[in-house]
Structure formats: C-alpha cells, structure tokens
Amino acid sequence: EWLPDGLGSPLAVQALFPLVAQFEMAGNPKENEIAGAVHDRIDAAWPILAKRVRTIPEYGALFVNAFDHINKPEQVTIVEIANALAAFMALEWQSFDSPFDRFLAGETGALSPVEQRGMSLFYGEAGCATCHSGSLFSDQKFHALALPPFGPGRTRRFDPTARDVGLMGESDRLEDAYRFRTPMLRNVAITQPFGHNGAYTTLEGIIRHHADPVASFAAWKPEDAKLPPAPWLAATDFVIWQDKRELARQKRRLDIQPIELSDQDISELVAFLNALTGSSLDNPPFGVPDSVPSGLPLDE
Fold first, then answer.
1. What is the CB-side half-sphere exposure of residue 296 using CA atoms within 13 A?
2. Does the predicted TM-score (pTM) go above 0.85?
3. Using a CB cutoff of 8 Å and minimum separation of 24, what contacts does 220-228 make?
4. What residues form DSSP beta bridges with 122?
5. Tens digit of each residue's pLDDT (9 = 90 or more) over 227-239
6. Domain 99-274 falls in which CATH fold?
7. Which regions of the chain carry the CATH code 1.10.760.10?
8. pLDDT in tens, 45-58
C-alpha cells in the first residue's frame, strides 16, 4: 500500500526498493535525509528522491523527452524514475543469444557433443530441471540445500545467532528455515562464486554439492570459499561453526535427494552450463557511459 500508482511492471517495483533499503542505498537513520524519511514509511522518500533527479537540468530534459505526459521537469515523480529504470534494465540486460538458445532455434552445431550430453543429463537423470526450469532456469521457489554456512547473513528479528535463516528471515515461519530461492542459470558460468553465500567457487563444486549434500558439507573447509582478505571480519565469518546444534539443524534441512554422478557426468554438466553464456554480454545496447548528468563518478 506504500507503492505509488502507475508503476508499469514488477521490474519497476523492484527498481524502487534498493533506493530505500538500509543496507543497499538508504543507509542508517540520522546518516541522511533518505534514511530518516524511510524510518517510518518508505513512501516518505519518494518525493525527496524524485526532486533530486528532476532538478538536475539534463535529467529533467531527458524525462520530458521520454514521457509523453511530462511537459516540464517539475512533473517528474518517482513513478517515471522507476519506469525508466525498468525500461533500461529490461533492454540492457537481456541475454537470449547463448549457444543453447541458438541450438533451440535449430542452428546446427551450436552445441558440441559434450554440451549436448550435459543438456541431456540436466533435463534427464541428473534432475537439474526439476528446480532450474523455464526459460530463465528457475522455478522461482525456495529450497533448502544444506550449503556450508558462513557470515552473519540475514537473521530473524531479534535473533541472537549469527546465522542465515533464508526465507524464514522474511516469513518468520519455521517451515521456511534455510530455504533460498532457486537462482537463474543464464550466464551462470561467469557469475561465480556459487550458492546463496558463495560457498563454492567453481561450477564443479556446486554440482557435486547438489549430487551429495551431506558428503560435500562434511568435506567443505572455510578456505574453499576463497574470501578476500578482511581481517576485521575474519573473526566472525565462521563463528557459526562453533555452534554444533545450529550446524546440525542446517544439515538436516534438505529438499533435494542425492544422486550418483560420475566425474564425466559432472564435466558434461559444466560444459552445458557454460553454453548458457550469452554471446553479446560484452556489447550491451548502452554499455558504460563516459559520464552521467549528475556528475557522480563512474565505477566500471
């Protein structure tokens, strides 16, 4: 009920939330006016954010040119900003030109024999498509995989334990404990590390975990995460491993069944997952601009 009317798509809705999320862009109360505004209700930030954008002359002119119903910058609201962000994201980050897509379109030789065997495993006896389904390779549901835990994650409210409880942190329902949304697999080969917390740095590692979660959990070591040096965090990163009862709870929650995969099977699955990488990723429609109207520095 706090969202404005006129948002054109779920993508436009999604575009708004990082602006008012404490740990993304808003910050903490008393740090800035946005954080203060959203402390009570997120919609208190909409007019502040919209004014920041439309009063930059070049942005104001661009919105007038882009929207038929906007005749002057003073009319720009958070709705136009969110819809513009959604339109940009929908165009800039589409990726449907992978070898797999070309194979589906009938291109002979788009997939190598190894990649085709991996595809057969993915949709067949390996059972990957049970959860990684559809054009985006995700059922958009939540599943518990007993991934090795580290870091504080997102806890329940007033939770004294440094643990990541997954969907339960939002729903507060015990049946949602340690369940995380199925990730989409397009371009997965270039989005390491893998798992909701980055427990595995290779596709082979995360596939082996899916095949035998109990054995992989037992064999996993903190150095497998290959975290960057951060001495000020190191002491708490793996504190959860001192809580044997919590580890036991996480290991018990499993929504997948082990499956026997040979080394060759795993190699073929890795080959297929690499074939999901789009061929135009290095040349998106817009790319990184030389500058932006706000004058803020660019982080490439």
1. 7
2. no
3. 220/148, 222/150, 224/148, 224/199, 224/200, 225/150, 225/193, 225/197, 225/198, 225/199, 225/201, 226/193, 226/201
4. none
5. 988 888 887 889 8
6. Cytochrome Bc1 Complex; Chain D, domain 2 (1.10.760)
7. 99-274
8. 999 999 999 999 99
